[in-house]
Every structure is written in structure tokens, then in C-alpha cells.
């Protein structure tokens, strides 16, 4: 009865990892998925995660179901990490938080909520955006459109285009904003630009939906990277925010994150929470506990939290080092081209501007696995491989 089902296309990001695993080329390099690697290109389990797990084993926890909204200590901790110690919304119980399945699951609960309680609302996504955003909203039955974000000519933010598109969006539209370290471009608004975006959102009655998947990876500081959602909260703008601990705590496979609705009164927050719980119940019932305990332990313990900040700085610092090395190698190989975008971009990625043909060449000739949009994950690059990658990039301009 399923014979009419068509083959789904390979996932633009996770499909790259599948192809990488199948390659037998000894020089192969996986710069597809945004997953942090050590200088030896090995996965990294953070020291704070190991310490938290040790404490958890000693505490001998049971494996009972969590409530639909997840672990209370985690929910409290994740709100605090996002909105800061001094947050009025947190103090006044105006944040509905549901622990969910990392960034994707949190966005999906938010999308289902929009579909159910904001009928007809269209979600505006930056162009370009993370490959999964479109699937998530479309599968939840929420229409999406794009707003201008990236300016190819300047390899920077097209602020005027973005503001014009926000102003043209009907009131009540949802605007997806990457909280920091925009994926895939590595181009973030400055503080002044965030203020202009908040003005446009406010004056047009739009509803921001922050996706915060890289807190810590833009500046190296967890605090600083929460600038945008904290600004919106201070200005009294109501918004959704999805959080992920896949990258900054390296908890990829634990599927730990949260969906928050920051609103202007306590009663609305409580009702919103009850409806988000209902949505979660129907999709996966209640979330897994292991990653939630790890994140809560790390955020709530001052010594572990301080150590996490150090490790965060180390991870972000390693990426900055390979960025600089890649840039130096590219300049050495082709001094006539302006490569400064490599060091101007921030976060885990570099958006190289390579076209699909060049990407194909990078993979087929050099075994460098990257996404078709020309994004490379610098979190998967080592210093030893910078020259190899630079050679391949320069070579790809000959095709
Ligand atoms: C990425 O963009 O590489 C990550 O967010 C991983 C994913 O799930 O796509």
C-alpha cells in the first residue's frame, strides 16, 4: 500500500554526514554539520558535562517520567541563561518555558502553537536561513515567507532590505530571528541594528521568534550572546524563543533545549504553558531527563558555570584561530581576492559564496564535505587542515 511513496531527498545538512561516512578518501574532511571537533577532529565532551554526569550517578536518580513541560530546575536555569539574572519577565513569572527536544523540537512545538493559536499568521524567515526552518514550519502547517537578510555584494547584513520587508509584513506576522551567530551566514546585526529591528517589530505589531542555537559561539561569552532577546524583553516586546544545548554544551544526541514564550502578564504565560504542554503531550508526551539534569547542574552550580564559560571561550577561541589561519592561507595562495569575509563572519560557520558547482568540486576532488549553499563549519576544521582547505577553495575557482 506504500508503493506510491516517493524517495525523500537527502537532508541538505545531515545528508552530508552520511556521504562523509561513506567516503574512503583518507583526506576526507567533514565541514557539513555544525558540530564542534577538537584539534584532532574528534567529538568533544565538555569537562563540565562529565563532572555533572558524575554527580548525577552519585545522586542515583530514578527514571520516572518528567512532567510534560520538563524538569523544573532546568526550566528555571534555561530562562535565567537566556534572559539574565535581572530579568523582570522571569521575576514576574511572565515566561512560559517547556523543555523540548533541542532546537528542532522546541521550534516544532512553537510552530504547532502558532498554527493552533495564531491562525493565518505567516512566519518570515531570513534569506538564507538554517535548512530545517522551512521543514519545521511547513510540517506544522504554518505558511512561511522570506525576508531579506544577507547582502551578497557586501557579504554583510542587508539592513534596509530587512527593515523594508518587516514593515511590509502584516501585523501579527511571526519574524524568525537568529539570536546570535546567524546560520549559515555568520553575519549578525550590530547593537544599533538590533535596536532598529526592534523598532520595526514594535511599530508593525510583529511577533519575534528567536532561534538561539549558538549562545556562546558568537562572542565566546554566554552573557554577551544573549544581547538580542534581552533587549527585546527590556523593551516589553512579547516573543517566542527556542534554545538548544546541542552546541554550547555539546549535548547533540541528548536532545536538550526549550521553547519559551515571553509575554506581558503572568496569566497569559500560565495559559500558554498549559497549551504548549498539550502540544508536547500529543507529539512526544514528555522530554528526556538526562540532558536536562546535566544542563541544570551546570547552569545552577557557580563553579561548574564558571568552568563552562571557560570551556565555551576555549571552543569559540579554537574556531577563531582556524578562521584566522584559513584567511592567512587563502591570502597567501591568492592575494588578489578579498578574503576578509572569512574573519568578519562569526560563530561556527563561514559562508564562502562557493556555488553548487564549486561545492561539488570541493567534495569530489578534495573530499571536503560541505553543504550545497557554500557553508563550511569551521568547528570541524583543525589547524593542520587549514592549508589543505585553502588550496581546495582556491582550486574550486578554476572550475
Ligand atoms: C547545522 O546547521 O549544521 C546544525 O544545526 C545541525 C542540524 O541539525 O542541522
UniProtKB/TrEMBL annotation:
Q: Which Pfam families match?
A: Aminotran_1_2
- Which GO BP terms sit in this record? amino acid metabolic process
Listed GO MF terms: L-aspartate:2-oxoglutarate aminotransferase activity; pyridoxal phosphate binding
Q: Which residues form a coiled coil?
A: none
Instruction: From the UniProt record, list the reaction(s) this protein catalyses.
Output: L-aspartate + 2-oxoglutarate = oxaloacetate + L-glutamate
Which cofactors?
A: pyridoxal 5'-phosphate
Record's miscellaneous remark: In eukaryotes there are cytoplasmic, mitochondrial and chloroplastic isozymes.
Protein name, please? Aspartate aminotransferase
User: Which taxonomic lineage is given here?
Assistant: Eukaryota, Viridiplantae, Chlorophyta, Mamiellophyceae, Mamiellales
Amino acid at each position: 500500500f506504500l508503493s506510491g511513496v516517493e524517495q525523500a531527498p537527502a537532508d541538505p545538512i545531515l545528508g552530508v554526514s552520511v556521504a562523509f561516512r561513506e567516503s574512503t578518501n583518507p583526506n576526507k574532511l567533514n565541514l557539513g554539520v555544525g558540530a564542534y571537533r577538537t584539534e584532532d577532529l574528534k567529538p568533544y565532551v565538555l569537562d563540565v558535562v562529565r563532572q555533572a554526569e558524575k554527580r548525577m550517578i552519585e545522586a542515583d536518580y530514578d527514571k520516572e517520567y518528567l512532567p510534560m513541560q520538563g524538569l523544573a530546575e532546568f526550566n528555571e536555569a534555561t530562562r535565567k541563561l537566556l534572559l539574565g539574572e535581572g530579568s523582570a519577565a522571569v521575576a514576574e513569572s511572565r515566561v512560559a518555558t517547556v523543555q523540548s527536544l533541542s532546537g528542532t523540537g522546541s521550534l516544532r512545538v512553537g510552530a504547532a502553537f502558532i498554527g493552533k493559536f495564531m491562525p493565518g499568521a505567516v512566519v518570515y524567515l531570513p534569506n538564507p536561513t538554517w535548512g530545517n526552518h522551512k521543514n519545521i514550519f511547513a510540517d506544522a502547517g504554518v505558511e512561511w515567507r522570506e525576508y531579506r537578510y544577507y547582502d551578497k555584494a557586501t557579504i554583510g547584513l542587508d539592513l534596509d532590505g530587512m527593515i523594508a520587508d518587516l514593515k511590509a509584513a502584516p501585523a501579527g506576522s511571526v519574524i524568525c530571528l537568529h539570536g546570535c551567530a546567524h546560520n549559515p551566514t555568520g553575519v549578525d546585526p550590530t547593537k544599533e541594528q538590533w535596536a532598529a529591528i526592534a523598532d520595526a517589530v514594535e511599530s508593525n505589531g510583529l511577533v519575534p521568534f528567536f532561534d538561539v542555537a549558538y549562545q556562546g559561539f558568537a562572542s565566546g561569552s554566554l552573557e554577551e550572546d544573549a544581547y538580542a532577546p534581552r533587549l527585546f524583553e527590556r523593551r516589553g516586546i512579547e516573543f517566542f524563543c527556542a534554545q538548544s544545548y546541542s552546541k554550547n554544551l555539546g549535548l547533540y544526541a541528548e536532545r536538550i533545549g526549550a521553547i519559551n514564550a515571553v509575554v506581558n502578564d503572568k496569566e497569559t504565560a500560565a495559559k500558554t504553558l498549559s497549551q504548549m504542554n498539550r502540544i508536547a503531550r500529543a507529539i512526544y508526551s514528555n522530554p528526556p531527563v538526562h540532558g536536562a539534569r546535566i544542563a541544570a547542574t551546570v547552569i545552577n552550580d557557580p563553579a561548574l558555570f564558571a568552568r563552562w564559560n571557560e570551556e565555551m571561550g576555549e571552543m569559540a577561541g579554537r574556531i577563531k584561530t582556524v578562521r584566522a589561519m584559513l584567511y592567512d592561507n587563502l591570502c597567501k595562495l591568492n592575494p588578489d581576492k578579498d578574503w576578509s569575509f572569512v574573519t568578519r563572519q562569526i560563530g561556527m560557520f563561514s559562508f564562502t559564496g562557493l556555488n553548487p558547482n564549486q561545492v561539488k568540486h570541493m567534495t569530489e576532488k578534495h573530499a571536503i564535505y560541505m553543504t550545497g549553499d557554500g557553508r563550511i563549519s569551521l568547528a570541524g576544521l583543525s589547524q593542520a587542515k587549514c592549508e589543505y582547505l585553502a588550496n581546495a577553495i582556491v582550486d574550486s575557482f578554476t572550475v
